[in-house]
Structures are given as C-alpha cells and as structure tokens.
Specification:
The structure holds 2 protein chains of 2 kinds. Chain A starts with a strand and ends with a helix. By secondary structure, chain A is an alpha+beta fold. In chain A, helix 3 crosses helix 5. Chain A is built from 5 helices and 5 strands. Chain A is globular, with a radius of gyration of 16 Å. Chain A has 2 domains: 74 residues, Beta-grasp domain (Ubiquitin-like (UB roll), Roll); 75 residues, DNA polymerase, domain 1 (Orthogonal Bundle). In chain B, the strands form 6 sheets. Chain B has a 7-stranded mixed beta sheet, sandwiched between helices. Chain B has a 5-stranded mixed beta sheet with strand order 12-20-19-18-13, with helices on both faces. In chain B, strands 21-22-23-24 form a 4-stranded mixed beta sheet. By secondary structure, chain B is an alpha+beta fold. Chain B is globular. Chain B folds into 3 domains: 194 residues, Aldehyde oxidase/xanthine dehydrogenase, molybdopterin binding domain (Aldehyde Oxidoreductase, domain 4, 2-Layer Sandwich), CATH 3.30.365.10; 160 residues, Aldehyde Oxidoreductase, domain 4 (2-Layer Sandwich), CATH 3.30.365.10; 221 residues, Aldehyde oxidase/xanthine dehydrogenase, molybdopterin binding domain (Aldehyde Oxidoreductase, domain 4, 2-Layer Sandwich). Chain B is 28% helix and 20% strand. In chain B, helix 13 runs parallel beside helix 17. Classes of the chains: A alpha+beta, B alpha+beta. Chains A and B meet through helix 1, helix 2, helix 3 and helix 5 of A and helix 5, helix 7 and helix 16 of B. Chain A: It holds the Pfam family Fer2. Chain A: It comes from Bradyrhizobium archetypum. Chain A: This is (2Fe-2S)-binding protein. Chain A: Keywords: 2Fe-2S, Iron, Iron-sulfur, Metal-binding, Oxidoreductase.
Amino acid sequence: MMTLKVNGREHQVDAEADTPLLYVLRDDLKLNAAKFGCGLGQCGSCTVIVDGQAVLSCVTPMVLLEGKQVTTLEGLGTIAEPAPIQRAFMEEQAAQCGYCIPGMMMRAQALLQKNSKPTDEQIRAELEPHLCRCGTHMRILRAVHRAARLMDTADASTTAKGSAR
Amino acid sequence: MNGPMMLDRRRVLAGSGALIVSFSLSSALAQQHDAPATAAPNPPGSLKTSPYLDAWIRIDANGAIEVFTGKAELGQGFKTAFQQIAAEELDVAFESLKVTTADTRLTANEGYTAGSNSMKDSGTAIQNAAAQVRALLIAEAARRLDQPEADLRTENGAVIAPDGKRLSYGELVAADMLHVQAQPSSKLKDPATFKLVGQPVPRVDIPAKVTGGAAYVQDMRLPGMVHARVVRPPSYGAQLTECDAAAVEKMPGVVKVVRDSNFLAVVAEKEIQSIKAMNALAAAAKWKETASLPKQDDLPNVLTGLPSQNTTIFERGDPAATGVKTIEAIYTRPYQAHGSIGPSCAVAQFIDGEMTVWTHTQGVYPDRQGIAEMLRLPPASVRLIHVEGSGCYGHNGADDAAADAALIARALPGRPVRVQWTREQEHAWEPFGPAMVTKLKASLDGNGRIVDWNFDVWSNTHSMRPGGAGSLLAAQHMTQPFAVPAPKPLPLPEGGGDRNAIPFYSFANARVVHHFIPAMPVRISAMRALGAYHNVFSIESFMDELAALAGADPVEFRLRHLDDRRGRDVIERAAQAFGWKADQKSAQDRGYGFAFARYKNLAAYCAIASEVEVNRETGRPRLVRAVAAVDSGQVVNPDGLVNQIEGAIVQSMSWTLYESVTFDDTRITSIDWQTYPILRFNAVPDSIEVHIINRPGQPFLGSGETGQGPAAASISNAIANATGKRLRNLQLTRKRIKEAIDA
C-alpha cells in the first residue's frame, strides 16, 4: 500500500512502484479527467500537476510520487463552481471532442501559476507537448489567455474575501 | 396509406386552391423540400426512413420532452444544435428538453454519422417532427377549448388561448397522440421569428468535459467491470503459430486469456494488470508473417498498375470550343491516418444470451449487424449504445474495438468487459484514408478560358465499414473467420474516390473518369471528406496552374468559370475579408493561396484564402493566417459552424504538410506520434477567420467535411506562390519543398 495525495486528500492505494500514476488516478481513484492517449509521453492527454509542475501521468511511476501533491482537473473546480481555467474553456467553447482538453488545461494551469501574464509565444511553447486532433488550437490559445485574465480578477476578489481555491 | 394514394391526394389538394384544414398543407410558410409534382411525397430528412413522430419526440404527462436522434455525437456539437432546433419548433425553453443519441433500442436507424449529413438527415427530421408535434398539440387544444386553431399560440411548453387559458403540452399529450406518421411537409416557423436557431448557444457537453465529468466510453465504470487488452497480430494476415499462455494466466489479477485462432486477448481485474499481461502474452505469441505490402516509394505506380474498373462519370462536349494551350499534371496522396487522440475503446456485457455494447462507433445499427453476425446471434439480441469517444474523423478503430469487447465478453458471461486499444494498435490497425492518384489535362482558349478539362482519379473504395462481420478485425481473426467483403465504389452523386471529382466549374468540354481499384493492399476505409480531400486539392491546384498559364488572378479566374451564385458569394466574401487583390505582392518568402469547393457538389460551399511562410533554408512551411467563407444553408449554431471550419483548416493543414502512413514490405511502421508526426503548437497559425453566409430558411447543408479539400489546396497554392514551385505530391514536407526550391 502506498499513500498518494490527490486534490488535497490522502488515499491509500494498492499499487506497484512501477505503476504509472495515470492508472491509479483512473482505475483506483475513479477520476476521469486525466486521459489515456498514448502511454508513451507523446501526446499530453494524461497531464496532471505534481507539486506545481505539469507531469505526464502515463509515464510517471508511483515510486516518484511519495509525499508529493497531485492535482487533477477535478481538483480545480466543478461545473457549479468552475475554476478560472475551466470557466475560460467554457466561455471560449474551446473543445470539439474535448479528449485532449483536460491535459491542455492542466499544463496551462501550471504555467499560469508560475507566470500570470504569459505571452502568446510562451503559451504556444508551453503547450508544445500536447496534441489536439480536432484542430481546436486557436480556441485553446484564446482560452488560456482568457484564463490568465480571469485568474487576475479572481485573485483580486479572493484576496478581498480572504479565501482562495 | 400507400404512396400513390398520397400522391393523388396531395396533387388534388395542392391544385384545388381550397382552404383545407390540414396543418401539413395549410401554411404559406411551409418549407417545400422541392419535391417535383411527379415524385411521391416523402417527409423530409430521416423522417423518410423513420416516419413516426414519436421516434423523434416524446412528451410525457409531466411535460418532460425527449428528442431522439440516430446520429452519434462525435464532438461536432450537433447534440446542442438538435436541441436548439427542437426547442425552437416546439416553442419550449432550450433547457427543458433532453436529446438522446444513437442507441439501437431507443433511436431511429439513421445509418452512419458521416458525410456531413447529420444536419441534413437528422436535423431536418427533428425540425419537421417538432413542428408537426406542435401542430398536433395545437389541434388537440383547439378541440378541447372549442376554439379555432388560428386563434391559439404556443409559448414555453403550453398552448395559450386568447383569453389567457393555458394548456401545457403535458396536459395535452395523450397516449398515442404522437405515434403517427409524419406528413410530407410541415408548418415551419418563419426564420425571422427564430429565437434559438441561429444563436451561438453554448455546447451542452463542454462543462462535463472541462471539469472531469464522465464524458467518454473510456470513462465508463460498471459494477464488476474487468479490463481487457487485445494482442493484435504484428501485421496483416499474420498467423498465430504458438502461444503458451500458462504463465500469463497465473499473473496477478488475470481472469482469463481468450484465444480464438488469431484473435488473442487477456482479461484482468485491474487495468494495469491487463497491460502487464498483454505485454507478457505478446512476448509469448509467435506469428507467421507474410510480406504483402506494396512498395511505399513507388505507391502511385503501384496503384495505377492495379486492375481497375473504369467509369466515365461525367462528359460534356462542345466541338466548337477548342484550346490553344494545354497542360497536364499528376497529383498524389499517401495513406493517411485518422489518428484519434484517444485510442479506441468499448465496453460489452453478455447476460442471458443478450449482448450490450457501449461504443463510439459512427453507426450503431450497421455495427450491431456486424457484431450479431460475428457472434451468430439474432440482431435483436444485440444492443449497441453510442457513448462518445475521442474524435474519430471517419472510420477508425471504433467498430473493431466494439467487436473485440463483444467477443471477449461472450467468454465471460455476466461481467462487463472494457477493452482499451493501445496507441500502437490504433495507429497500425485503424483503416486508413486511401492513397489516391489524379491525372489532369486541360486546355485554354485564346481568351484564357478553360475549354477542355480531363480528370482521371485512381482510388480504392472509401468505405469498408460494417455491415457484415467481415469488416471487423475480431471476425477476421477468429476460428471460422469472416471474409473481408468485396469492396464497392460508393454511388454518385456523393461518391467515394470520385467525391468532388466532377468539376463544379463550367467548362465547354469536360470528361471525368473514375478508376475504381478493388484490390486493397493496405486496410482502408472512410476518412473525413473521402475522395473530396484529394480531388479538391487536385482541381484547385490545377486551377491555379491554369490561371498562371492564362496570366490571370486566381480568384478572378475561378469566378470566370463559375455560374453558381452561392459559390460566387463565398469566393467573393473570402477574398474580400482576406484583402485579396489582383495585383497583390506578398512579403519575402511568403505567399498567398486561394481555393474553393462545394462539398460533394451538393452540400456546403467553402472558400479559403491563406498566407503561408516558407523558410528557404529548411523548406519548412507555416500557415500564417487563413480566412474562410462558408455557406451551410440555414445556420443553427454559428459558433459550432465556425468551430468545425476552424478545425477543418487546422486538421487539413496537418494532413497536407506532415502526414503519411509508412510501412515496409510486411508491417505498418508508423505506429505512434513519433513515427506519424502531426501538427504541434509551433506550427499553429497566427489567426483563422471564418465568415458565415447565413441562408435563412434554406435547407441545412452540414459542415463537418466541407473545409478539408479547400484548406489543402489553398495552402498548397500559397506555397507555390511563395516559392514559385508547384508541389503535386502530398504530403508537402519541408524536404520536398526544399528540394523544389533548390531544383
């Protein structure tokens, strides 16, 4: 048994040391957002955040996650209370099939946590590991820019209320 | 009532000029779907094949409304568009109804969700069914209130009388009221009064998709579900000669190894256990392979050298028109992959002789037929339920994964079995978009008009979808295998390899020959736009070659040969929005390109202007910006339409610049994203603009595949404009561009 911290909660999971995080998230913890796309670290669909860094969960073995904080898209917000990045993707209608989108959002979220006002070039460079087959790229870029603006506003309002998501 | 009787009745009514109280014929606003007087009147869209109104719309006593479509949501967003259409014609709030998609137990059989036909088939059926249901509810209210129908109106799910008395749809609807056949025409709303149709209503599926909700078949978790992986042969036709599975069966969590001749799979309690067992099983399996693949380097000659059935599909002659200058050219396209980001997946459960399969197939009914045949079960004992998968863009591994799941589930009665393909399996085993060759020859007269046009296209079929079990890999690999069915060319006017092969322009002399190649050395099937992608690429590239020969501007040259008003409108709109000028000069190492097509020559119109940058040192091209104009008839959801065209341009750019399936003499060698590279963010354009020409009240023309051909040709023409060199062999790699520049 291993202890895994996901979205602020500790879970006891029965997983081998070499099991990629993706399967524990999906199979043991029943989380949907991180997607299986290639299992090879080539497409980005499985991206989650580990201690603030965007990580490809399909090639990250459990042994590397002891004591670390894992955040998945589910940990950011809900339909009723979406996080800024989620609101931004809804408002820009930045999806067709949407399968690649959660991975894109997690890497964008990690970027925006480090750099609240990225340039278009920085966003494009950051999203380089991610593939989208529907051709939704223009909307994804717009959504990340919108998320940066929303997070700015959210920061201001949550600071005022003294709470932060 | 039989057909001829309806014909007679309709003709009598239409000709009498009398006031007939019949909602189907009484309205001046009725949208006549141009049925000629001699044809039997059919209700529009898929109401032709599923005429009962309650196949499309059901209302319960509480007023809850459910709308049914036999089409599958693939990420195009039409579930939202259908909801808009139904709510509009029923006069109810958008949120008050629910749309249920393809399910062999619940919905109409609408065949495949393909060909940009969903709006035309299902959207039209729902629109007319909703209008007719509303009319029935008004008629019932008129009866109960003893008031003329004309005095009643509908609003927010109720019929309202002049005195304010309100009867809700739930109160009005009686047991079998909607179990009636659709009338040939409907009293549709005046488009000027639309409140929902034409609005960019946000997609209903996006909130779950961006918050981790269960949105895909991959996300299904049924009680007691087990995880299966298939071990596919290493190549087409490989025979399993040896497989000692004893050690695999003892691995942790392994429930069963399923072997049925060349079909090999393993089932485990947990997904990671199934992966480890699959790897062990693959290592234990010995296969006898046959070198059966053609020479990739010589593919065009291989294809044109295969036996073909040649059909002249278009011929027009005017001996008076003769040319003075003639050019010819050959264009080629490689095999290309759908390349879904999520490999195919399905869940199946076999209980008491009844098989249920949850699948992202594009055709629940045809796939059910194939799976039932494979399992030797009556189709009524097999239920297929569509659940979204990753975008498919045509016939990918979806149907095969569904068959895999069914075959494995039969071996484990009672337990739900989830089959997940690997990335390598999806890349190696999906049926590819067929390679194609086109040969063009045309002549200009002294005035720079095309007077003679010859177009030959060589291609396989563009659909090997089920139907029969023989289309499914599992059925091909099992003991007593099902043979791959004989391929057939898809009939015109939509066509397959010859889709969009007939020019939409007016030429005095023209001849188009379809060389249909039955032999399929590589597994192929339908990929977004079918033959239209390459045919439009060829025609529109050659139009630019001819414009250059005529010394004409490419946009003006197209208009010179085009009579169709709506076609001219999209060309003019795209050119104007792009800032296209006849005497334009691009910046150093940049070029402008233009292309146009009417998809299938009968659906949506699309023109695209692009600006491309080419690095002369490396040959690397980049689409800088694209401006499209599209006319898809009556627009239902403009943002959905823009999204489809944006996506088509980006995806077609990726096909056109980067993509080709690779193989040696035995195996497919493009088996992941390293060996089959596609567009990444570094090549995403600076901007894409899509301009819609809305046609209120006109039929829905669809949009999903409209942009593929024009985008490819527009980009290719821009590369030719930037480099002064014409590339005719897809894909337009930087190596090929560099070699052309240096030549």
